[in-house]
Write a structure and sequence with these properties.
The chain has 283 residues and is an alpha/beta fold. The protein has one domain (14-275). The chain has helices spanning 33-46, 63-66, 98-109, 116-132, 165-171, 175-189, 214-221, 229-233, 251-262, and strands at 78-80, 90-95, 156-160, 194-196, 200-202, 225-227, 239-247, 266-275. It is globular. The structure holds zinc ion. Zinc ion (ZN) is lined by residues 51, 53-54, 56, 62, 64-65, 99.
Length: 283
């Protein structure tokens, strides 16, 4: 059973975020990721797409499967519970189940970058909810459409949970970082001053979270993250939201918050596209 596309770790070099048709940036054996992405993009142009969640033709994500992710006027993301001790408050737009779960796994593990157009607004929604609904976190600073500007004291830093270096190489991109940057762009256009800072890096021993139970996830996550060099210095004294695609137990978020607080950040909470519902022992 898969538990989700959680494979956190590893700082990402900017060269690995090359576009689909740009030159390969690694010398790994086999077709370079950029070339594979280029071929995938070509294939997508030549052959019709199908819904990443249900297989319906002609749409990367059909209307029915996209419904839980779609934006509405105002913030609809909700505070989600986690089971991990030390995890910050988490806002998520959708429950991690059904088509959302299938779609997110396809997005992350099967190269369905074409789902970004649904996932970016969904993450933006969760970030906005964290900042606006969680008013006790940042009192008075977060009137939507206000005049706060990036660089002001109220600028909130979005820190993506890093993916393992190997996963980034395999996918040819930093998927969560790309989501975070897309969401930050949307939110700045709404007047919310947010900036993405890649302040976390991955420790060496981190395993893929997929398939691990809650206890194993907590153990796996512990001491798995570190502060990423110069980017880490930018969080000192700054309000920070940790962002991720999926939250299950919250063990990775707890570790991210621990590391960021240790680096001097004011961790306000976390935001994700989807979160597992807090029931039973699913992890
Ligand atoms: Zn569908």
């Amino acid at each position: 059973m898969r538990d989700g596309p959680c494979d956190h770790a590893a700082p990402v070099s900017t060269t690995s975020r090359s576009g689909p048709l740009s030159a390969p940036s690694t010398t790994a054996p086999g077709p370079p990721p950029a070339l594979r992405n280029g071929l995938a993009a070509l294939a997508a142009a030549l052959w019709p797409v199908s819904c990443a969640a249900c297989g319906a033709p002609d749409r990367a994500l059909c209307r029915a499967c996209a419904r839980p992710l779609r934006e509405r006027a105002g913030s609809r993301a909700a505070l989600a519970g986690t089971t991990a001790p030390g995890a910050p408050a988490v806002w998520a737009t959708a429950a991690y189940e059904g088509p959302v779960r299938t779609g997110l796994v396809a997005w992350k593990d099967r190269g369905r970058a074409d789902l970004d157009r649904w996932l970016v607004p969904a993450l933006a929604e969760a970030v906005q909810a964290a900042l606006v609904q969680g008013e006790s976190l940042v009192p008075d600073r977060w009137a939507v459409g206000g005049s706060a500007a990036v660089g002001d004291a109220g600028t909130v830093l979005l820190v993506p949970v890093p993916s393992r270096r190997a996963a980034v190489r395999e996918r040819g991109r930093d998927a969560v970082g790309d989501l975070a940057r897309g969401a930050a762009g949307l939110l700045r256009r709404r007047g919310l001053p947010v900036l993405v800072v890649g302040a976390l890096s991955a420790g060496r021993g981190l395993r893929d979270q997929v398939g691990l139970d809650a206890a194993s996830r907590a153990h796996n996550a512990a001491r798995s993250l570190g502060v990423a060099g110069r980017a880490g210095a930018r969080v000192v004294g700054a309000p920070v939201l940790v962002v991720d695609d999926v939250v299950t137990t919250g063990s990775t978020l707890a570790e991210a918050a621990r590391v960021l607080r240790g680096a001097g950040a004011e961790v306000l909470g976390a935001a994700a596209v989807a979160a597992a519902q807090r029931r039973g022992s699913s992890g």
